[in-house]
Amino acid sequence: MRQMILLFSHSLSDAQKSDARENYGVEAFVPMPVDMQKLWSAIPAQSGDISTHIQPIKAFVEDISHRGDVVLIQGDFGATYALVNYCQSLELVTLYATTKRNVVENSIDGKMVKTSVFEHVRFRRY
Q1: pLDDT tens-digit series, residues 60-89
Q2: Structural domains of the chain, count
Q3: What is the reported pTM?
Q4: Which of 41, 73, 94, 105 has its CA 20 to 30 A from that of 28?
Q5: If 0-12 CB within 10 Å is exposed, 13-18 middle and 19+ buried, where does residue 75 land?
Q6: Please, which residues have CB within 8 angstroms of residue 9's CB and are 6 or more apart in sequence?
Q7: Which domain holds residue 106?
């Protein structure tokens, strides 16, 4: 059974789940445990070396993954780079999501308010 491991800070949309199933054969979605989600969402900006910070996430991926699984990785640029390389060394398929931004303008109380709505387009390989 091919799974998608989620190394990012959001929930998957229905469109993203559909895309993963149809185009990558994903049957199960595996989010990070809450403690690792907190680590991933708070990569310390003041740190020159984040390798210790992301080590638990690497261990999590190694423990639950099987060659050919899919990993959706998005977040801090340095952490993302490190995890993409690590996951590829485990022969995992590494992806990121692409979106289309639709700007909606509404007049509210005489003021023009712009809202950006992001729509999933596709996953792209690193």
Answers
A1: 999 999 999 999 999 999 999 999 999 999
A2: 1
A3: 0.87
A4: 41
A5: middle
A6: 37, 40, 41, 74, 75
A7: 3-125
